[in-house]
Amino acid sequence: MPHSPSAEQLIETLELEQHVEGGYFKRTFQADHRSMIKTEQGERFTLTSIYYLLTAQSPIGHWHLNRSDIIHFFHLGDPIDYFLIAPDGALSTVTLGPNPPLGHQLQMTVTGGTWKASRLTGSRYGLISEAVAPGFDYKDMALGKRDELTRQFPQHKALIETFTRD
């Protein structure tokens, strides 16, 4: 079996940058060969995609919400736990990872309007891709604020505190 790349090799090879929500990313596609689509927030690409990497040095994707639907695809490394809070407050968890017999998912869909946080479960890294439709725009994303999320979802206070910055 070939040697697995290190997190540092992936960051360099894939040209990843630090992401505001935690981890590292790089946009890999935007559908600029198609007409933009109109949304309530303005025109957007029909589809964008990124690589997203959590590492031992940056193991958390902090609470954030996107207006667009996102499909996540697992690629390499250790499993990543995802915590999802629906608009009605229902909590679900999904583990993206390499081993379906252990309950890992190879892909998952998060509908727009769902709060999401993630955590690397191993000691190396977890690499995924995301396909976003309509395409990602920072204007369509909100970072979770601890006091606001706790007020909205008091039943999830411990998880909110774990995955928000002070």
TrEMBL record:
Q: Which SUPFAM superfamilies match?
A: RmlC-like cupins
Per UniProt, residues of the DUF985 domain are 8-143
Recorded hits in Pfam families, A to Z, give: Cupin_5 (PF06172)
Q: Which domain of life is it from?
A: Bacteria
Q: Which InterPro entries match?
A: Cupin_DUF985 (IPR009327), RmlC-like_jellyroll (IPR014710), RmlC_Cupin_sf (IPR011051), YML079W-like (IPR039935)
Protein's UniProt name: Cupin domain-containing protein
